[in-house]
Amino acid sequence: MLKSDNIEAKYIMQKWKIFEQEACNYLNKKIRHEGVRFSLTGGSDSYSRDIEVFWKDKRLCSVECKYKKSQASQFVVIHDPQKKKFKWSSENKSTKEGALNVVKHMNKKYSYYSQVPKCKTNVELCIKTSFMYARVIKQINKKACFIVASNYENRFSPERPLILEATRNIKNIFNIKGKYRAKQSGSRSLPKKDFDKVLHCEVKDGRCHVYDPVGNLPSKNPGAESIYLGKPDNDGYREYRKLSNTRNPSVIFTLELKKNQRHTSLELLRKYVISNTSK
């Protein structure tokens, strides 16, 4: 395997990771202030912070990253067909703020939304966008004061704009849509008892992997539909994962940048940093 092939695989498979790293690098380059640094801390976990802003050893704030059209603020809504009612799931990790208004709306439109758990389908939320924005803002505000977004993963410029906005004002830069969907529950590492169900299993840290940096192998595993291959990691290995058998219908929102957005001057974030390091 040529090194160039490995680089190309990472570029194709993980553009959102490239965007986060490049956005962090851009902030460090453009906002120069004594003792201030931007640190990339995020990952695939949607509950973690993406970029943290430090002054010396003190964390000032965090910046959320959104690359192209992206999902936000998902939460599970339980359907009780006996009571003909929807309710917030106690298993949700996110805040209830802004979400309960959505659940209340769903109960008013019960016949429309009840088709999702029964038919394993998706339906658009027919609620005012102000309620959707409110939910997303409440959720993101728990971890970040600012958002950077772009349709480009690197080389930011007026022709390839990077947009920065305060989280509370995301409606200025994003269009929003919402869905109630029959979502498959999450996955877990392949149990050891299932290692013999896949080919080319190489055990790393107790988990089943295969070296496939370019992604030549199919994601689905023949003969075992619940087993699939994840994306290549930084070393070119893909992990075998096993899907849960349960489905948790969820409300999820999609943010997409509005057209004709201008490249940021970063002045909003620069002023925030200066005002919070001059004390």
Shape: globular
Q: If you average the pLDDT, what whole number results?
A: 87
Helix run count: 7
Number of strands: 16
CATH architecture call of the largest domain: 3-Layer(aba) Sandwich
Total number of distinct structural domains = 3
Biggest sheet features: 6 strands, antiparallel
- What are the segments in which pLDDT stays under 50 over at least 5 consecutive residues? 1-13
Rg, nearest Å: 21 Å
Listing every helix as H and every strand as E from the N terminus to the C terminus, the arrangement reads HHEEEEEHHHEHEEEEEEEEEEH
- Class of the largest domain, according to the CATH hierarchy? Alpha Beta
Assign a percent range to the helix content. Answer: 10-25%
* CATH topology-level fold name of the largest domain: Trna Endonuclease, Chain: A, domain 1
Give the termini separation.
Answer: 54 Å
Proportion of beta-strand residues? 25-35%
Helix-strand category = alpha+beta
Briefly, what is this?
This protein is α+β, with helices and mostly antiparallel strands and 279 residues long. The chain is built from seven helices and 16 strands.
